[in-house]
Amino acid sequence: MTYREKEKQIPLNDRYDVIVVGSGPSGMSASVTAARNGMKVLLIEWQGSVGGISTTGLMSHFTGTCDSKLYREILQYSADKNPYNTGECTIAIDPELLKITYCEMLRAAGVDLLLYTFCCGAITDNNRLTGIITEGKSGRMAYTAQIIIDCTGDGDVAAKAGAEYFKGRESDGKMQPATLMFKVGGVDYSRAVFPGSFETEVQTEKGELQALARKKLPSPAGHVLLYKSSLPGIVTCNMTNCTDIDGTITEDLTRAELTCRSQMEPIVSFLREYAPGYENCYIISAASLIGIRETRHFKGVSQLTETDILEARQFDDAVVKGAHFNFDVHNITGAGLDKTGVQKEFSQENGYTIPYGCLVPEKVDGLLLSGRNISGTHMAHSNFRAMPICVGIGEACGAAAALSVKQRKNLRDIDAESIQKLIF
């Protein structure tokens, strides 16, 4: 059965040069960069605060790195705001301070921001994306712009516009599991352990901690990832786990949320009994955004591969440089690291680059891909999805959008060298 919705007219706003959808690290950097280069920018976010997984997702720290001026600016701006910090840059995240940092940077750049606003449709003209349709408390609205940047992570705008994609790994479409981050207080830092990777083993009086987790925690949880925070006695836990999730399906997102929340109390009980320094720990907060690692991979003019990363390729048309992380493939069927993943033992120490074509969809004009939804293989994605790299990607997209508007050129005709001059 279907219900036919009555046709209706909706208000149209055409005041913008660039529209950015999604305010995570990629969307924030795309918005600021485009606005700093003279564009009238609208940033749309479906949640009530900016930052996406880095803030609302209660992320512990910035993993990986990228040679991005804006990334370094974010780190320094955040450090200057932290009363417990000496002013030194740190990769640890205080989510509330980072929200303030993002808001102040957006405001200073002159970006218009709409929160609590969901992008529910794409406006296209042949093969060109010309606008989006949104839904919020005020009802439906239509917005048009010369360039639209999809920073939704899942590529929701690009998918609605008809851009080609595949999901998950190429062999079977399976995707990495979902996680709900949470924080515990009451930790004795002088004795506490902080295993930062699946491959980090911690010997305790009661046994090796990762092995104990596999035995004691409710499946598919079963690993220990604990990170210091920027506040005393507080630790961020990356230990909930829900497999067989498609982050583009509402029912799957709901199941992931419920599954991960059901694991939090057993995890705290486990930490109290088996982890040194956590005997008196307790839950103080949990993310209000489930962490989705992987969904759509879009087909771009270029595609980044695992080999490009392993060889630290330096592309002539690079718009992101100095990108570095590991192959962070979480177990697709259970707890821990997938057999294809490499974290602590990742041996490639040099930064790689990302070519401009990975940000440009093959067949849709007026649209840029930014963040983890750019054109890349499943394995390459496990590396470039790291937040500092996403900041670099967003920075490149913001510059490309500004050049496209100023030069009145299609995005695919923008010379990468001109983008490099703006951001390198």
Tell me what the structure shows.
There is one protein chain. The protein is built from ten helices and 19 strands. The strands form six sheets. A five-stranded parallel beta sheet has the order 4-3-2-8-19. The termini are far apart. The chain folds into two domains: 12-169 and 295-330 and 346-423, FAD/NAD(P)-binding domain (3-Layer(bba) Sandwich); 182-286. The relative contact order is 0.19. Helix 1 packs parallel to helix 9 and helix 9 (387-407) packs across helix 10. It is globular, with a radius of gyration of 21 Å. Helices cover 28% and strands 19% of the residues. It has helices spanning 25-36, 69-81, 95-109, 156-160, 209-216, 250-274, 306-310, 378-384, 387-407, 416-423; strands spanning 12-13, 18-21, 41-44, 112-114, 117-125, 128-136, 139-144, 147-150, 165-167, 182-185, 203-204, 207-208, 226-228, 235-237, 282-286, 296-298, 318-323, 352-355, 367-369. With 424 residues, it is of the alpha/beta class.
Q: Count of helices?
A: 10
What coarse outline follows from CA principal-axis ratios? globular
C-alpha termini separation: 54 Å
Second-tier CATH architecture of the largest domain: 3-Layer(bba) Sandwich
Round the mean pLDDT to the nearest integer and report it: 96
Taking Cα atoms only, what radius of gyration do you get, to the nearest Å?
21 Å
Low-confidence stretches are: none
Topology pattern, helix = H, strand = E: EEHEHHEEEEEHEEEEHEEHEEHEEEHHH
CATH topology of the largest domain: FAD/NAD(P)-binding domain
CATH C-level class of the largest domain is Alpha Beta
User: What is the name of the CATH superfamily of the largest domain?
Assistant: FAD/NAD(P)-binding domain
